[in-house]
Design brief:
- The chain contains 8 helices and no strands.
- By secondary structure, the chain is an all-alpha fold.
- The chain folds into 2 domains: 57 residues; 165 residues, no CATH class.
- The longest helix is centred in the C-terminal third of the chain and has 38 residues.
- The radius of gyration is 19 Å and the shape is globular.
- The model has no long low-confidence stretch (mean pLDDT 90).
Length: 245
């Protein structure tokens, strides 16, 4: 059984839309929001206007860039996936990326700290933040893979609401959402510690590679969380509501 995710309303982009709504209806604008440092996953409930005021950027200029990006966009495959397809996609793309990248980032951070820590004391805090992100994300991924995602697959295939030790699917979703918010805070801290991922002039290639990889980690995790918070989780909760107990 293929259970669809409800398709977003693709109306014109407005400064009154929330950031989460914008990326749900217009996926191509995610990169522009990242460029302006506007958090659309954990901060997705804010309107574009509110987020721009908070960041001190011109909302109309941002709106124009979002509209331009959307005008030439190619709709991504995940935009129209059913819930089981979306779970499979998240595991194959975002979970696999994190399983591979987090150990690599830990090793690269340690290498840069050893080479440059004496001259750049901020690397000690950056190293601690990277370690905290890894410590948060790795068990989070396992909880999704071993608990929540199997529940979603079972729910999608069932005619009645399956029984589970977790109770309603809303319970693990609530836990995952809270953990998303925490990792979002850690990523915001990482961005601040790295000065928006700009390596210092005396940084070696490894230093530059580290900051580039950390920026990629932030962007990928924001999109990952968006797909879950704003597409997958609401769709799964609607499906559960439709299943007789």
């Amino acid at each position: 059984m293929r259970v669809e995710v409800s398709q977003p309303d693709c109306r014109a982009i407005s400064v009154h839309d929330t950031l989460g709504e914008l990326v749900t209806a217009h996926p191509a604008v995610a990169r522009e929001l990242e460029r302006y440092e506007l958090d659309y996953c954990c901060g997705g409930r804010r309107t574009l206007a509110q987020a721009c005021v908070s960041r001190g950027v011109d909302a109309e200029a941002v709106l124009a860039d979002l509209q331009a990006a959307d005008a030439v966009a190619v709709t991504p495959e995940w935009f129209s996936m059913g819930v089981v397809e979306l779970v499979d996609h998240i595991e194959a793309k975002h979970h696999r990326y994190l399983h591979d990248e987090l150990p690599r980032l830990s090793a690269l951070t340690a290498k840069v700290l050893a080479a440059h820590g004496a001259r750049h004391a901020e690397l000690h805090d950056i190293s601690g933040c990277v370690a905290a992100i890894r410590a948060d994300l790795e068990p989070h991924l396992l909880k999704e893979e071993r608990v929540l995602f199997p529940m979603i697959r079972e729910l999608a295939a069932a005619d009645e609401r399956p029984s589970s030790p977790c109770g309603t699917v809303r319970n693990p979703i609530a836990v995952m959402t809270t953990e998303h918010e925490h990792v979002g805070e850690l990523l915001a801290c990482l961005r601040a510690l790295t000065g928006d991922y700009v390596a210092p002039a005396d940084g070696c290639r490894s230093y530059t590679a580290l900051f580039s990889a950390l920026a990629e980690l932030e962007a990928d995790t924001h999109l990952h969380v968006h797909k879950e918070n704003n597409l997958l989780f609401p769709a799964v909760q609607r499906i559960e509501d439709q299943r007789p107990a």
